Amino acid sequence: MGRHARGAHTGWCAADHRCNLTEHRSDDLVVTLPGFGRAVLTRVRDERGREYGELRARIALDGDEYTARVQLRTALTDLRALLSRAAEYTRRAA
Ligand SMILES: [Zn+2]
């Protein structure tokens, strides 16, 4: 593995097939709650140098449709809270 057109891999980049010509990508950080779900967090730097935390989650849904919808609504509500809390640490231009 060599260098990107826009520079060398970052210190946290996995430097393998996940890292392509436009993005650097870290190893996946996995959180598992057996029987209930799994989330994967990956650090990404795009071609403009902007960095992101990319989050993918799989949530085990109940067989009952109403309960499954409540679970999804709860997940969306909590994701909004999660994004808002993470955004609190973003430095803002004065
Ligand atoms: Zn890379």
From TrEMBL:
Q: Report the domain of life of the source organism.
A: Bacteria
> Would you tell me the protein name for this molecule?
Uncharacterized protein
